[in-house]
Amino acid sequence: MRNLNRYETQPAVFKHMLMGLLFAAIVILAGCGGERSASDGDNVTTQLLPTDVVLNLFCADVGIAGETCVLDDPENPFSNTPIPEFDPNADPDLPTKREIAATIPAGPSGAKARFYFWATALARRQSGENQYETALALHELYSANSNALSVDTLIQEHALRAYESVLDNFFGSVVVFACFICGPVPGSDPADEEFPLFTILLAERVADHVYRPESTASPVYPNGLRPVVEGGPALAQDLFVEWGYNYRPCTDLPACTNGLVTPVSF
Which has more confidence, 105 or 255? Predict the structure, then answer.
């Protein structure tokens, strides 16, 4: 179980060195296709990860399950970068997908790169985790590029489409977390402690993000992202019905563990 792609990371010097090398490789690969040097004729342009929050949608369904056009997007710095998926036989000393993703800067300066990372992962492997993280990155970009005077409605609508795709295509998918407050698993190696694991249904997580934007709160965004549905919870519930789902909001705040999403039929 210790190789699961999960939200926490275990400190290890070797892993950090490998992640640094992989991150450097991303920058090098992103330079392909640039200017030619007059001295040797090789491509030498160095293209760093994008830090702006203006996303150009390469195709109508980019970042939505079933579409792979992001792999052809010239602005995608990860198009040629290996993104490891869960493998129970993987070397435990190699960085996981989430550990590599964690090297992207937190906050708005890394939001666009996060979108490309997870959309690339989704294009290569259709999974609820990849779709959810792509949707969350779109939500982050919409929030970062909107204000009281101007709203990025294109990315807002695309974020909602990506959230809906989690429900439509990966309804039963879960994400695995480690419970640090539970303490290490009894008998685990003190040098490499393992912690109890638990799962969260992505359908409930998506519904909570749409219904209650403060659920997206993090150390970088203490108040959560901008509401992806303007107008309050009633309009969010109306959208769920339009998508074909019913959402019973959680009542055990702030933990929010008892929300329920169910498909509806007419």
Answer: 105
